[in-house]
Design goal:
- There is one protein chain.
- By secondary structure, the protein is mostly helical.
- 58% of the residues lie in helices and 10% in strands.
- The chain folds into two domains: 2-27 and 137-364, no CATH class; 71-135, no CATH class.
- The protein has a three-stranded antiparallel sheet, with no helix packed on it.
- Strand 3 (77-82) and strand 4 (86-91) form a beta hairpin.
- Helix 1 (2-19) packs antiparallel against helix 4 (137-162), helix 6 (200-216) packs antiparallel against helix 10 and helix 7 (232-249) runs antiparallel to helix 9.
- The longest helix is centred in the C-terminal third of the chain and has 46 residues, at 273-318.
Length: 368
């Protein structure tokens, strides 16, 4: 049970640090009923680009539903630090859908700071950007997933301890085969029989965090629906964890093969061609991890929203009847993409974990 406790400890530490390592993306938020500008809407019509990006981007609110002109959402904490006025703590609802200036802060809607919280002077001019540590929808989603994962693993650990030497059942029966698969088919072959154990807590944390958040992003019901793994800040943090663990555990042979590889001398002198190639590989590996997970998960959400937006595009161009006619096709394709995303969620969690294990194996392998 010592290994189980160690795994839970590393899971908690990893995910807690990750939750607060994200940089918030500034998008306006609201918490109350407001009236739409119908004249402006009539002039501009439906904007599919804004519609799609609004639903896949981060936000200062957790939007639940809209009934007519009534928007039901949960405000999230705004945490700002200004060099002029110090710390500020308030709820995102104070911005009133990004239309109100509060404590000399507002959400910019145009220019290079569009979507970010900016600080204003007494004349309403932008004087700079405050340090933004706000809890956005993505960060709130990470925190919720951490709580969910801790509940799952603590329950499984308690069940394993209580039912020692018995066949697993319940939640343990679901989680245990996955853990054994990752141990026997990923960690051992990639890292080696002698060294895989110390990396197992990290690899399990990585796999289950990505998998759970992939699934949560597919469920459009609170407290799910946050596009956590479709946020590049999250995938960057995960890739950096892998990079740091690989770098710390790299042995003498690993670094020798980077700075002084066993290649003909003319590939190293006078121009260190191979060392440059090897060193660039150290950087591109976590970059590839970051982009692969982000692109695959973001793509699924984008495609679904594009299919849904077709309903409004046809209705805007040819009337409500055209929108109603295209809706069965749009919904059918959206459901198909969501089903495909279930498979992609498993694959991306597996691939990220497998590649991380391979990097650890390369860093700790002995010279033969």
């Amino acid at each position: 049970m010592k290994a189980t406790k160690t795994r839970i400890y590393f899971t908690a530490c990893l995910l807690f640090i990750l939750a607060f390592s994200l940089t918030s993306e500034s998008v306006f938020a609201e918490n109350e009923q407001h009236e739409l500008d119908t004249t402006k809407h009539a002039e501009t019509g439906f904007n599919p680009g804004d519609f799609v990006m609004h639903h896949v981007s981060d936000a200062f609110e957790w939007h639940i539903a809209t009934f007519g002109e009534t928007h039901i959402s949960i405000p999230l904490p705004i945490i700002l630090y200004s060099g002029n006025s110090g710390w500020h703590f308030f709820w995102s609802s104070k911005f009133h859908h990004g239309e109100v200036v509060y404590k000399n802060f507002e959400i910019a809607h145009q220019g290079e700071n569009s979507g970010k919280i900016v600080e204003l002077d007494e004349h309403g001019e932008v004087v700079g950007l405050p340090v933004d540590l706000s809890i956005t929808k993505t960060v709130a989603g990470v925190i919720f997933s951490v709580i969910l994962l801790l509940w799952i693993f603590l329950s499984v650990a308690k069940s394993a301890k209580r039912n020692a030497n018995q066949a697993p059942k319940g939640l343990q029966n679901l989680i245990e085969p996955i853990i054994l698969f990752l141990r026997d088919e990923v960690a051992k072959p990639a890292i080696g029989e002698k060294k895989y154990e110390k990396f197992m807590p990290f690899l399990l944390s990585l796999f289950f965090f990505i998998l759970v958040n992939n699934f949560m992003g597919l469920i459009p019901i609170f407290p799910f629906g946050a596009n956590v793994t479709g946020n590049i800040a999250v995938t960057m943090a995960l890739a950096l964890f892998t990079f740091v663990v690989t770098t710390i555990n790299g042995n003498k042979h690993y670094w020798k093969e980077i700075y002084n590889p066993d290649v003909p001398w003319w590939l190293k002198f006078p121009i260190p061609l191979m060392p440059i190639v090897e060193l660039s590989g150290v950087i591109t590996k976590p970059f590839v991890l970051m982009v692969r997970l982000f692109a695959n998960m973001m793509a699924g959400h984008l495609i679904v929203m594009v299919f849904i937006s077709l309903i409004f595009i046809f209705a805007n161009l040819m009337g409500p009847a055209a929108g109603a006619a295209i809706s069965p096709v749009s919904v059918a394709f959206s459901v198909f993409i969501l089903m495909l995303d279930l498979l992609v969620s498993f694959i991306q969690a597996y691939v990220f974990t497998l590649l991380s294990a391979l990097y650890f194996g390369m860093a700790t392998s002995e010279h033969h």
